[in-house]
Amino acid sequence: MNAVKKKGKRFYGAGLPGVNLNHLTGKLIVIEGADGSGRSTQVERVRNFLEEKGYATAPVGLRRSTLVSRELERAKEGNTLCKRTMTLFYATDFCDQLENVIIPALRAGFVVLADRYIYTLMARALVRNMEQKWLDSLYGVALVPDKVFYLRVSPRNLIERNFHHKETLDYWESGMDIGLSQDLFENFLRYQRKIQREFSKMQERFGFETINGNRSILAVADDLQRKVLAAVENKS
Questions:
Q1: What is this structure's pTM?
Q2: Class for the domain spanning 21-228
Q3: What is the pLDDT along the chain (236 residues), one digit of tens a residue?
Q4: Closest C-alpha to 192, from 213, 207, 172, 214
Q5: Angle between helix 39-52 and helix 217-232 axes, rounded to 10 deg
Q6: Which of 27, 37, 168, 221 could form a disulfide with 33 if both were Cys (CB 3.0 to 4.6 A apart)?
Q7: What residue segments make up the domains of the chain, in order of their start?
Q8: What's the CA gap between 236 and 179, in Å, rounded?
Q9: Please, which residues have CB within 8 angstroms of residue 1's CB and are 6 or more apart in sequence?
């Protein structure tokens, strides 16, 4: 599983059988970022922006599979999932969407906008000491995106933004299952720093672009929309 350099669609590994990559004429654009980074807001803004430009879009994201999304949510409620089970649950969710949403949309010429992709899943697994080789094999089915953007926001700002939208921090997004601290806030800060270190490593490996998400919504939107449009139009 290596960084993107060549043109044309391809998988990171063995991929899905029976897929003619030459028929995938659409674009796969990924926007990554933690909860509180403004990621979902920016994805929606990009989608509206592209559709106003005449591009058909298809949104995808974590826990949206019709196969396992409800089961995954229920399993997470008890905060008892072991790290490997959780990784496999998310991988199943991803693969179902890849086969039944992403590939058909790309075949139809759509711009697929992914509200997070395998990189978040890999980063989460790596900070839980999962094996890199095993993760590479697990996510070798993934298509290499045409462009990946990572909205990087400081952990302190993430806390403030999370509390602006809800009264408490999420157990899993705070990494409480790995016990970095007994204090929820401190655990959140340590966990998000670990996640960001993994993304820093992946930036060079996978060739994605980091965007300063600490700015205002409009500033990030202007920057991101311009770069996404360039990627869609093959100008990046």
A1: 0.91
A2: alpha beta
A3: 755 445 689 999 999 999 999 999 999 999 999 888 999 999 999 999 999 999 999 999 998 888 887 877 777 776 667 888 889 989 999 999 999 999 999 999 999 999 999 999 999 999 999 999 999 999 999 999 999 999 999 988 998 888 877 777 888 888 888 888 988 889 999 999 999 999 999 998 999 999 999 999 999 999 999 999 999 998 65
A4: 172
A5: 50
A6: 37
A7: 21-228
A8: 41
A9: 12, 13, 136, 139, 140
